[in-house]
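Thread: quick sanity check before group meeting

JM: Hey all, I'm pulling together slides for Thursday and realized we never actually wrote out the predicted structure for the chain we discussed last week. Dropping the sequence here so it's in one place. If anyone has concerns about the input, flag it before I start.
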Amino acid sequence: MRILLEAEIKGRDEATRRNHRKQAQLPSGKTFESWKEEDSSIPVPTQHALMTLEWISRAENLACAGPSGTGKSHLAEALANKAIDQGMKVSWFTLESLTAHLGRATVDNTVPKAVAKITRSDLIVVDDIGMLPSGQAAAEAFYRVIDAAYERRSVIVTSNLHPSGFDSIMPKTLATAAVDRLLHHAHIVLTEGSSLRLTQATTGQGVQPLDPAG
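JM (edit): ok, ran it. Output follows.
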């Protein structure tokens, strides 16, 4: 009986994780299995501290900023996958997809309901801020989620800009208010160096070698 109960619980937990992963809509399936900590410019002790996910239990945030290709999104997705493995719920957006999501809710006046649903997740990720200029709608969407999550849920943002520079790509008042809340309880991690993607591409590591024999 004990074995049957343990098997049932294990199966239920696995089904819950599958469901959480499906709902999170993570972009590429990157985990810490493919993460090479020695290639990252982030100090190894910092990497290990983030991997514990203890900061999520304290509703602390993570702001990861640095040049394109330096591992920001990989780290964010690996953390998100680990959070799901530990039974947490995750919501993943780019700033553009978040803006579109809340834009659709604006049409039928369900924005508060949509924001409330997002902030039921234990971890909210907004990836790649700053890659494109952001207008009023994007700034409002970002502010709404950051404000609703403030001191209640953890947020990861990744950007090629330091958050203090978000007012250069979105309206200053909203950017300042959002960043103030975001950074109040945040770990700020800066990446540097050349693009890991470009390095892999130029050394032939980005693809499987072609077989001339076909």
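AS: nice. The longest strand covers residues 123-129. The mean pLDDT is 89.
JM: adding both to the slides.
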